[in-house]
């Protein structure tokens, strides 16, 4: 398979789907939800129909890792703004959302399997600091 053909599933995913999600954190959330929790395989019916399940899994896995790296590369202030943008699209009161996330730690499922221990620690530390900051601000700070 030529390199330009190999990139097609990822390009299709970004062009049709991921660019429509306004926040990096939203992309992380979306991609993590496409990962089967029992097998670790990423499943996207549309991509699999066009490119095959193996190529769809590869494109989703690579995109998840890329979004994760993009999030880690953002300053804490930019992460705060991005997280607030993500939260603004959810139909849950901000204080309930923050309390629930701190209690259940759903965000732990957003990391790609390829993330190493230092990346995981950084991600978790940033998210927890952001959530605690939002909680102490009454959940309304964006």
Plain-language structure description:
The chain has 142 residues and is an all-alpha fold. The protein has one domain. It has eight helices and no strands. It has helices at residues 3-6, 8-16, 24-33, 45-51, 53-72, 76-88, 94-104, 117-136. α3 packs antiparallel against α5 (53-72), α4 (45-51) packs across α5 and α7 runs antiparallel to α8 (117-136). The relative contact order is 0.13. The model is unreliable at 1-6 (pLDDT under 50).
What are the defining features of this structure?
about 140 residues, globular, mainly alpha
Q: Brief overview, please?
A:
The protein has 142 residues and is mainly alpha-helical. The protein is built from eight helices and no strands.
Name the poorly predicted regions. 1-6
Count of domain modules: 1
Radius of gyration: 16 Å
| Average residue pLDDT | 89
Q: Please report which band the strand proportion falls in: under 5%, 5-15%, 15-25%, 25-35%, 35-45% or over 45%.
A: under 5%
Number of helices: 8
Number of strands: 0
Major sheet: none
Topology:
Layout: H1 3-6, H2 8-16, H3 24-33, H4 45-51, H5 53-72, H6 76-88, H7 94-104, H8 117-136
Helix pairs in contact: 2-5, 3-5, 4-5, 7-8
